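I hope you will forgive my troubling you with a question about protein structure. You will find the record immediately after this paragraph.
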Amino acid sequence: MTTKLSGHYPGWQPNANSAVLEIAKAKYSELFNHEPRVVACHAGLECGLLGERYPGLDMISFGPNIRGAHSPDERVEIKSVQKFWKFLLEILKEIPKA
């Protein structure tokens, strides 16, 4: 067997002091009546790509519940898509204009 590596997804270091994160945490609590669970995990690869091109960009990664990602068994929980769409719209209302 031989392998070939291709493509590049740079990592990114989440910012625990992010203004966007604070807005998101407040909005989540307001919308869903409980504190969000904030974790760093193997996800948000797009943040690495964006951060590489826009150093210092304040960003977070979040999304719906996905099971079996990147496999033929990948599934998304529809109710969580609706929840996170509403969440995104509320976050965007609070982001300061530059």
